Amino acid sequence: MKPKVALKEVAKSGYRLDNGWVWKTGDTVYFGKGTLPTKHFAFVYESETSWYNVLGGPKSGNDAMNDRISLKSNEAKRGVIKKITLTGTEKGGYTAIGVVGLGGAANYWIEIDNAVESGEIRSPKQYAVNNPAEPLAPASSSKTDQLKELKKLLDDGTLTQKEFDAEKKKILSSQ
Question: Who's near 52: CB < 8 A, 6+ residues apart?
Answer without folding.
Answer: 46, 69, 106
